[in-house]
Structure formats: structure tokens, C-alpha cells
Amino acid sequence: MAHVPAAERRPQLIKAAIAFMAREGVTAGSTRAIAAELGVAQATVHYIFGTKEGLYRAVMEQLTQDLIAQVERAAPTDAGFEQTVGALAAALWHTVREQPASHQLLTELSHFALRTPALNEALESHYRRVTEVTARLVSEAAERTGQPLAQPAETIARFFLAGFDGLTMQHLALPDEEAEHTCLQAFVSAVVAMAGGRLELVSVPAN
């Protein structure tokens, strides 16, 4: 068998790991199983990623990169603020409807990472990067449309992502197309209202 450089083999293994774990679940994703998925020796996986956690980190990074690319492609450059938020939510929701296995995998990996110290940094990096990109898109839309923001862009981004995570989990657990459409519309309206200062924020005790 011809030798394949590590730089070429790495993305192949990440793609194979995503396909396998999306199909079989995160806990089934051993280095042996991923190696078999691609038809290479298990030692190849360890040589390139070091450990199973190293492979998982690479998978999380790839899923994060893919999600960010989808969000950035969906961001309109000539729409109003409300239309921009709506377009971002609609584009993300389309990926949930069309690629539920990928979103389920990312959810499973996130929960797995919470209890795996070697993956804590990867999980933090995922949420940090997604939040930063969403906040940047919100800021750009506000500046382009002259929309003053009543809350910091990062706060709006975290609200947007938290709501979207909840809708995604509901879709994965209990899909209901009609209810989801209504909730998505209400969610976008809430984000826009929050950004414009029309959504009253209730004080929550610190303790």
C-alpha cells in the first residue's frame, strides 16, 4: 500500500470519525473503530492524533469550523437588521433539518467533553469561536443598518446561541414542524427585541 503523508491522512481520518460517530455515537468512536472505518492501521490514528482525545479535539474543531462557515455564508450583506437575524436563524435551522446527525454528534461531543478534562479546552474554544463570530455578525449588521444595540453584541450572540441550542435539542428529541416554525419566528423576534431594547430584562438574583 502506498504511503500517504500525515497531512493528507489527517483530514481523511477526521471525516471518517465524523461519519462513524454520527452514525454509531461518540462512545463507539474508539481509535480502532475509526481506523477500521477508513481502512488503515490503528497505529496510524495514534501517530497522527496521539490519543483518542486528540482525535476528538480535531473532530470538534472541524465541526466548529463547518458551523462557522455555514453561519458566515448565510449572513446577508444588504438586508435590514431584523432580516439579517432571520436569515442567520433560517440558515442554521436548515442545517439542523438537513443534517440532524451532525448536530446530534456535536451535542454528544459537548456533553462528553464536559466530563473529559483533556477536551475541556476544545469545548471552551468551540463556544468562544461561535460566540465571537455571531457577535461580529450582529455588530456588522447593526453598523450597516444604523441599528443601535441596547445590549452588547456578545450578550445578544450568547442569547441567540442559547435559544438555538434549545430549539435544536427539542427538534432532535421531539420533532414537530409546525410548532418549530412558530417557535423559530418567536425566537427571532425575541432576539431582535432584545437588541433594540424592546425586550424587558428581568433582574435575576446572583445567589
Automatic annotation (TrEMBL):
Q: Which residues bind DNA?
A: 30-49
User: Which keywords are on file for this protein?
Assistant: DNA-binding, Transcription, Transcription regulation
Q: Which PROSITE patterns does its entry note?
A: HTH_TETR_2 (PS50977)
Q: Where is the HTH tetR-type domain?
A: 7-67
Q: Give yes or no: UniProt keyword Magnesium.
A: no
Q: Which top-level group of life is the source organism from?
A: Bacteria
In Swiss-Prot or TrEMBL terms, this protein is called TetR/AcrR family transcriptional regulator
Which InterPro entries does the entry link to? Homeodomain-like_sf (IPR009057), HTH-type_TetR-like_transc_reg (IPR050109), HTH_TetR (IPR001647), Tet_transcr_reg_TetR-rel_C_sf (IPR036271), TetR_C_31 (IPR041583)
